[in-house]
Amino acid sequence: MNTIKKMVTLLATIAGGYLLLLIFMYLFQSKLIFLPSSDLLVTPSEAALQAEDVWIETSDAERLHGWFFPNDSTEYIVVLSHGNAGNISNRIDIAKFLQEAGVSVLIYDYRGYGQSSGNPSEEGLYRDIEAVVNFLKMDKGYSEQQMIMYGRSMGGAVASFAATRFNVGGLVLDSAFKNVKAMVSDLYPFVPSFLASYEFPTEQHVQQLSDIPVMIMHSPTDTIVDISHGKALFGAANDPKTFVELRGGHNDNFHASVDIYSQYLKKFLLMIDEEKTSSIEEK
Questions:
Q1: Do residues 218 and 245 touch, judged by C-beta distance below 8 A?
Q2: Is the pLDDT of residue 21 over 60?
Q3: What is the pLDDT of residue 31?
Q4: What is the spatial distance between Cα 1 and Cα 234, in angstroms, rounded to a whole number?
Q5: Which of 127, 129, 162, 122 is nearest to 145 (CA)?
Q6: What is the value of pTM for the model shown?
Q7: d(CA 220, CA 164)
């Protein structure tokens, strides 16, 4: 009997601990998803780059900070929606690369990240990208078709959302995931995915797109967002679409794959031009 009681007590303790863990993860899941930093590691001027500080007002009165990297040799601008951690200063190398590769670039911080005001939320991030697009149209004179949405990791959901709302020129998804519930199943298999109150449904957004060039980029050695997510997104996308296999892990694939990025960015811009020409001819 004592042995049985001990086993029952042990099981009850384990069950209680598991329940407490689930409650903790449910109540504080925003802290697991959003990992903003307010300190800028480096600014464009400190990196000897030409960029303009921009401030963007959202529809709910938040103020977003970003950097605009102009390139007068092109009509296109890449709008970079970054991942869930850090801020735009962690992505300045990507902005520099894109600018030197032949496009203008706007990188911006979501609400609660970097110098931007407010607190992050899924709905808030969608409001942020809407404000960014409207800013580029009203203040910089870009048409929607001149904008290429580029989303890394969590930013893939934000960029793909924008592609469903605006007539953008193209969409690039770099190391993006299908949705939050799928990520919970991958990273925390002991946690029921239905407890996730966030969606970030990148796959669902992608399925809604048609006649827009889509490029999916993912590394088979990404240990945070498995390449199966990238393949699922590619399967969900309509033509014209391209899948690009990168090198490196989730956080270093850019530096490990610069040559691949360069090669396929040029091809993607040509794809956008061809799609635009085809659309004009059909009209």
A1: yes
A2: no
A3: 77
A4: 58
A5: 162
A6: 0.90
A7: 28
Alpha carbon separation from 38 to 152, 204, 208 (Å, rounded): 19, 31, 34
The Cα 181–Cα 199 span in angstroms is 7
Residue 179 tokens, joined: 């949705």
> 36-92 pLDDT, tens per residue?
999 999 999 999 998 999 999 999 999 999 999 999 989 999 999 999 999 999 999
Two tokens, residue 187: 């990273």
Structure tokens at 96: 């520099």
Residue with tokens 């605009």: 68
CATH number of this structure's domain 37-282, picked from the four choices 3.65.10.10, 3.30.70.100, 3.30.300.30, 3.40.50.1820: 3.40.50.1820
pLDDT of residue 16: 66
| Gap between the Cα atoms of 200 and 264, Å rounded | 26
Look at residues 55, 32, 43, 17 and name the one whose alpha carbon lies nearest to residue 135. Answer: 55
163-177 pLDDT, tens digit per residue, is 999 999 999 999 999
Give the residue extent of every domain in the chain: 1-33, 37-282
